[in-house]
Amino acid sequence: MGRPTKCRMICRxxxxxxxxxxDSWRGLEPVIMTVDEYETIRLIDKEGLSQEECSQRMQIAxxxxxxxxxxxxxxxxxVLVEGLPLRxxxxxxxxxxxxxxxxxxxxxYKREIEKNFQKAKGENTMRIAVTYENGQxxxxxxxxxxxxxxxxxxxxxxxxxxxxxxxxxxxxxxxxLNALKADALICGGIxxxxxxxxxAAGVKLYGGASGSAxxxxxxxxxxxxxxxxxxxxxxxxxxxxxxxxxxxxxxxCRHGRCTD
Length: 260
Fold this sequence. Notes:
Layout lengths: L4 E2 L1 E3 L7 E2 L11 E3 L1 H12 L4 H8 L3 H21 L3 E3 L4 E3 L3 H4 L6 H9 L8 E8 L2 E2 L8 E8 L2 E9 L6 H9 L4 E3 L5 H10 L2 E3 L6 H9 L36 E2 L1
Parallel strand pairs: 1-13, 2-6, 4-5, 7-11, 11-12
Antiparallel strand pairs: 3-5, 7-8, 7-9, 9-10
Helix pairs in contact: 1-3, 2-3, 5-6, 6-7
């Protein structure tokens, strides 16, 4: 029996999951880049890290980082030369939760989010977040300026609070909810990248909801919330791969082949 693959640590989930040529491309089979391959491109080509530094960030051997990076670069070359679509999904990874447990890197933006948004929660408390504006469920997750948090114990709301997002948008909002220790999110429209980021952070999504935020939470607790399991913003046409995502800092990778 082969040695199980070790999960590759990624700092943030890709904000855009699918890219396509400007001319006719429909019907073409996309090139699939895994999330851990994307992370090597981000760290080495975008952030300017060496392969050694990249391996330290991802908590893998340098030779492993090099193999992942070489594979990612080859896929990018194929996309550019052959004019094919690119889709980011799958892979063996876990999402960094910030703080000292996984990330010791200077300037980690997740540590800043954790510091600014961390909020204590009781051991037996379920925390529900709702995209919020003037008492209603705000309809575009990526532009929400506020979340309303509801702490639930024994099936009843025991406390609620409105929290501003401080201008954080799209990709960072999943990390904000993670720092707020949200277990579930009720929202209106939401893009595929954010859906995958929430899944990776272990936040249960109830999208496509509308109306009063307070009433929506009560309906959720009663098992009567009207929502859309396959919700997605109409202007987001990125594909949400069914395999993408780990579950955050306390879980193995979804595929069951990774070890901490």
